[in-house]
């Protein structure tokens, strides 16, 4: 079974157009599309099939596309960052890039006329955007400190790259995996703090020793984690342990079982967890074993994720003597061309030319010698834009794209989140960082369910009018004992959100007024909830 298979009866429209033509077929049509322009492209090709090549048409910016890249384990050389900068530089105000919550980058403002040349440039540098959208496997995430940390259990760099190569056919496209029932997320954790949010993935590998007292390290497997408009659920144990050398084969087997047996009639119920619901986890494991051709070993009694989550911001020692990595805080994950050139430059001058991305939308520069650290910290870009010591209010701020560039978003997120967090910084001090995540719609790209405070875009009513609003989630936990939070408030108008956030920070996280003239008394929760309830 490959991508272009005959659709079953009563399938949705997506299954029909996937059966008619594989999205990878558009690789041969890009020069033609560039010639005729975006308005003349077949609507399904433009709005759907181009996503198989990593090109996303955005109705909110007519004629412009977003391009989503692949960056296995979030690691890229400075040469790739320069190419990204050169691509977005030509598009003016709408040309920028975002670091995503899957350790990759999205480039904005792309014109279809330029795509063939851009793709040729990518090929020259070994870069790819293939199979990054629709019913494909998203960027394979791994520990951002892979190969750097003394307490690391498994170096995930080679594993993430090997899994990506298997899925994408070495970046050229692989029809074997272009007809999944729905999108699919894979994470491979190698450190003790679950820096990849493993529980949010369809398939994740968590470090564990085979048996207590033994020294053979491998992975326990969890499956079925997902965020969607209809359901939010953590991954569950598969009761399986695998050595590192079996990771690629297990990924392939799980994907083939999902491809061949996943539910396709109702697109809202086509993620992996729905198949597990129908079969039960025991049968799902049995089918994976059949696909593998051998049994899986039972899971280890415990995994080795036993640290609290870290943000990797600041100057920290590597396991290599005399070397350091520096985590830079990137406000709302947004980058512009000039900044991207500067990041590439400082990675070359002070480090080894390597750049790493995190699921918190920040970046690391590794391999900086002690002798160069003083000069590195004086670089203007660190003083003016990417601090290594952000305020506790903004340190963990995460945001999806929002309505400025995404047609799914119900509210603007990035610009609003940044403005609001700066206002809160001016008013309050926090004893420790608070994780605040914004997402523009129930698709949850900003993952509000894992945050201390999560904000999900919606529509609300105020004075009889429909307005941009948010639902508020609290209690998400990452790292050890990870779990999802719960929604505590609904439909808070965005224009009324500041006092609500201020109140939550004061009452739940020990925030104190920074200066008396800024202080505003907390609002009673009952008053807030009553004012914005459906009643």
Task: Give a summary of the structure in a few sentences.
The protein is α+β, with helices and mostly antiparallel strands and 535 residues long. It has helices spanning 13-20, 30-36, 43-47, 78-89, 115-125, 157-168, 247-261, 272-279, 281-292, 337-350, 370-377, 380-384, 414-427, 497-509, 525-531; strands at 55-57, 65-68, 75-77, 97-99, 105-110, 141-142, 186-188, 203-209, 217-223, 226-227, 232-233, 236-242, 314-317, 323-328, 334-335, 354-357, 363-369, 398-399, 428-429, 436-439, 453-462, 465-474, 486-493, 512-513.
Please tell me about this protein's structure.
- With 535 residues, the protein is α+β, with helices and mostly antiparallel strands.
- Helices cover 28% and strands 21% of the residues.
- The chain is built from 15 helices and 24 strands.
- The chain has a five-stranded antiparallel sheet.
- Helix 4 (78-89) runs antiparallel to helix 10, helix 7 crosses helix 9 and helix 8 crosses helix 9.
- The longest helix is centred in the middle third of the chain and has 15 residues, at 247-261.
- The chain is globular and about 65 Å long.
- The N and C termini lie far apart (52 Å).
- The model is unreliable at 1-7 and 522-535 (pLDDT under 50).
Largest sheet: 5 strands, antiparallel
Residue share in helices? 25-40%
Could you give the distance between the termini? 52 Å
Output the structural class: alpha+beta
Low-confidence stretches: 1-7, 522-535
DSSP helical segment count:
15
Number of strands: 24
- Whole-number mean pLDDT: 92
Q: Within the largest sheet, what's the order of strands?
A: 1-2-5-4-15
Strand % is 15-25%
């Amino acid at each position: 079974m490959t991508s272009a298979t005959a659709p079953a009866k009563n399938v949705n429209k997506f299954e029909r157009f996937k059966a008619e033509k594989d999205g990878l077929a558009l690789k041969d049509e890009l020069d033609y599309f560039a010639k005729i322009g975006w308005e003349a492209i077949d609507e399904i090709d433009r709005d759907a099939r181009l996503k198989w090549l990593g090109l996303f048409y955005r109705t909110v910016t007519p004629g412009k596309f977003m391009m989503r890249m692949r960056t296995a384990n979030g690691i890229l050389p400075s040469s790739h960052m320069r190419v990204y900068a050169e691509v977005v530089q030509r598009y003016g105000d709408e040309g920028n890039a975002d670091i995503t919550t899957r350790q990759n980058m999205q480039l904005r403002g792309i014109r279809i006329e330029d795509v063939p040349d851009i793709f040729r440039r990518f090929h020259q540098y070994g870069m790819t955007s293939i199979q990054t959208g629709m019913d494909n496997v998203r960027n394979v995430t791994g520990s951002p400190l892979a190969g750097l940390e003394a307490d690391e259990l498994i170096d995930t760099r080679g594993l993430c790259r090997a899994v990506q190569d298997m899925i994408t056919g070495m970046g050229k496209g692989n029809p074997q995996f272009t007809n999944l029932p729905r999108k699919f997320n894979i994470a491979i954790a190698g450190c003790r703090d679950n820096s990849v949010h493993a529980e949010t993935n369809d398939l994740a590998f968590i470090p564990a020793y085979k048996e207590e007292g033994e020294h053979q390290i491998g992975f326990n497997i969890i499956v079925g984690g997902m965020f969607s408009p209809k359901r939010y659920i953590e991954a569950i144990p598969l009761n399986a342990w695998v050595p590192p050398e079996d990771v690629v084969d297990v990924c392939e087997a799980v994907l083939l079982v999902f491809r061949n047996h996943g539910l396709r009639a109702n697109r809202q119920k086509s993620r992996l967890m729905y198949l597990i619901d129908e079969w039960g986890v025991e049968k799902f494991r049995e089918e994976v074993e059949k696909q593998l051709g051998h049994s899986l070993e039972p899971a280890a009694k415990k995994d080795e994720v036993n640290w609290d989550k870290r943000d990797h911001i600041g100057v920290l020692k590597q396991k290599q003597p005399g070397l350091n990595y520096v985590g830079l805080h990137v406000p709302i994950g947004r980058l512009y061309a000039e900044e991207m050139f500067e990041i590439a430059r400082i990675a070359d001058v002070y480090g080894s030319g390597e750049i790493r991305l995190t699921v918190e939308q920040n970046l690391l520069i590794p391999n900086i010698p002690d002798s160069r650290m003083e000069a590195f910290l004086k670089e203007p870009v660190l003083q003016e834009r990417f601090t290594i010591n952000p305020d506790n209010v903004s340190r963990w701020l995460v945001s999806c794209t929002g309505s400025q560039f995404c047609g799914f978003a119900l509210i603007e997120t990035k610009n609003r989140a940044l403005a609001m967090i700066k206002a809160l910084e001016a008013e309050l001090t926090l004893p420790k960082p608070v994780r605040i995540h914004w997402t523009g719609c129930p698709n949850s790209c900003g993952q509000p369910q894992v945050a201390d405070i999560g904000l999900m875009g919606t529509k609300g009513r105020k004075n009889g009018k429909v307005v941009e609003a948010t639902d508020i989630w609290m209690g998400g936990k990452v790292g050890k004992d990870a779990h999802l939070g719960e929604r505590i408030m609904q439909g808070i108008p965005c224009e009324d959100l500041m006092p609500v956030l201020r109140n939550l920070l004061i009452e739940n996280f020990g925030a104190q007024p920074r200066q008396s003239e800024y202080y505003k008394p907390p609002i009673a929760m009952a008053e807030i909830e009553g004012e914005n309830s459906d009643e």
